[in-house]
Predict the 3D structure of the following.
Amino acid sequence: MSDQITDNAVSVKNIYKNYGEIEALRDLSLDFPNGQLTSLLGPSGCGKTTLLKIIAGLLPATQGEVFVNGSLVTKPGPDRAFVFQDFALMPWASVLRNVAFGLELRGVNKNEREDIAAKYIKDVGLVGFENSFPHELSGGMRQRVGLARALSVDSPVLLMDEPFSAVDEQTRRKFQEDLLNLVKNENKTFIFVTHSIEEAVYVSDQIAILLPRPSRVSEIIKPKGFRNKDVDSIRKDSEYLDTVESIWKSLRTYVE
Amino acid sequence: MYLFGYKLPGMSSLILWGLLWEFLGQIEVSFFLPPLSAIFNTLLEIYNSKAFVRALYETGYSFLAGIFFAVFIGIPTGILMGKNRFLDELLLPWVNVFMSAPLTALVPVLMVLFGFGLKSIIITTTLFAIWIIILNSRAGVMQINRSLVDMANSFGASPIDAFIKIYFWAALPEILGGVRIGFIRAVKGVIIAQLLISIVGFGALFELYSSRFLMTHFWAVILVLFALAFTLSELLGMLARRVDYYASKRSQ
């Protein structure tokens, strides 16, 4: 894949972010190739989520610029959709309305947006739960709702903030497999925040390792050999295991 | 409530207290405490008398108008205060002052400003109810899950959309809690204003009955008011419980 020419869907250029005295991000630059999944990996407090929210336009950067498909980011836009760690579902609304909510805010009329939502509810495997409420669903199902909502607005860039960290281990593995298929089938760019090394290596085309205080990109790793293998054999692949091991070696000094 | 191991139906304790009242009334402990049965008889006599119906209408009208303003000004104000730091710092001291102030002392001033009629009573009722509604709506908004707000923003919600579709609903359990307490305070407000102004509604009836020592009439009116306030509060409590299911699960 290395010789293939890929445009960058998202470019982060010399981003600084200060919270008062505290320097959260310092001179951070990073490119996110089109149609690929890039993980932001690092110990907690390294500013992964801060960077993601700056790309989303939810947080202003103190200095620096973010470009999405060539245009400067100043606020949230229809070219990006966000998947939240805690799902961010409206507890008072049904699954159908939750999934259609992005479209609702964009002014799509009711019939049309519910048709689109129904399609994505089917895609994430929640048929039959359209009229359920979030508190009636398991954590995994709730995140499927969150994913369906992000997919239904059909943005070219999908921002995922530790989307699988609040679901149980088995569900997480299933999600990771589903995510690989999603990256393969949807022509979208994924930016994926995680603190799990295995997860990052398993799902990513490119892993950016962030180090804390102040945050900067310490290393970019592009796993190649096992990317096109099928989901079952990745975890047995020797390159997969070596990559996990080497990332752990470089990160362990930062863990108290 | 349990008695000798048997479960008694809800509110059966009221029957017990009612019997005690009847007993004390029958043995004529005090002129001011007539038997409960006599009070109910009087109530049956007066409930469709012109004076009573008129009092009920005037009280109901000023109560509803008072809480209308309290709710429709209080909730948006509270939500805006919860959202906007500047507004919050501007208004919060006043809300807290009025929340704890003895508003009864203000009624004479209101009478001077707005006359001895329904207008003063409505404003008093609003003043009794609105502060807790503001404070609760504000508290409801301030504990909103941050990512719900981020979610709405990330999909490009306009401020109006965010206000109506996220803030209001997310704060609804607290808002309804505030409205419930506000309604109870409004009952106090409407009665206190009527007593002080004392020429309209139940205030006029109280004045009439107590000055002529018509104790059964006096108690009959009080019972009606207590029953109305209690029923109102229970109805709102039921409504609040309907949205409580998501109050505890909001973080999900």
Summary: The radius of gyration of chain A is 18 Å. The interface with chain B takes residues 53, 56-58, 76-78, 80-82, 84-92, 101-102, 104-106, 133-135, 139, 142, 153 of chain A (CB under 8 Å). The helical segments of chain A are 48-56, 95-105, 110-123, 139-152, 169-185, 197-203, 238-251.
